[in-house]
Amino acid sequence: MSRQIPVGDAPLIDERSVKQPVWDLPTRLVHWLTAALIGFSWWAGENEELDLHIWSGIAVLSLLIFRLLWGIFGSSTARFSSFVRGPRAVRDYLGGKWKGIGHNPLGALSVVALLGAIAFQVGTGLLSSDEDGLASGPIANLVSIDLSDKITDLHEEFFNVLLALAGLHVAAIIFYRLRGKSLVAPMITGRAEIPPGTEPMSRGKWWIALICLAVAIGVTRWIIAGAPPFGT
């Protein structure tokens, strides 16, 4: 049952109708920018806009590094320690015993799989080169030409795996929407209805976000430079 709570002199309202912060701004920006850039990277690759494809992939790399750092130092719902759980937590969730905000234990598996797939896709892209050798990833020189060619084929083929994982992600969103729960709106507004008594989100510090961003950009620039001294 829901509880009725007074708000000043206003009539009693349903506590469940009060929306609380769930996703911070950095998490939401990374989510949507990554999705947009992956789509753009696919378009650029299909249309042989290789320079755009490479730079888009580099932007995804920066976002990925930031997200990994934010998953350690960011807001409570963004931290991997708050949502990555073992089989028992997944079983409890399926049994209706889980209570919390952010990613549920089953959804966390999807998040980890997507981040891993994006990391693999970006990593193989960094080591790839086209058939003519006119365009190549910034650290393709770390491996032999033959190996780079094999990695290029893997980079192209693995995109289907990434696409399949993204499709499962969308299917889950549609499934929850049919059950009356929107996952898209909270990722836009940052707020969602949470059950009474649920521990609220603990926001990350803005200056920590800036440090994570600076580190992500710094690592990306190092890779663009050929990852010296390894690439020299």
UniProtKB/TrEMBL annotation:
Keywords: Cell membrane, Membrane, Transmembrane, Transmembrane helix. It is found in: Cell membrane. Residues 22-190 form the Cytochrome b561 bacterial/Ni-hydrogenase domain. It comes from the Bacteria. It is a multi-pass membrane protein. Pfam families: Ni_hydr_CYTB. The chain crosses the membrane at residues 52-73, 106-127, 158-178, 206-224. The keyword Transmembrane applies. This is Cytochrome b/b6 domain-containing protein. The lineage of its organism: Bacteria, Pseudomonadati, Pseudomonadota, Alphaproteobacteria, Sphingomonadales.
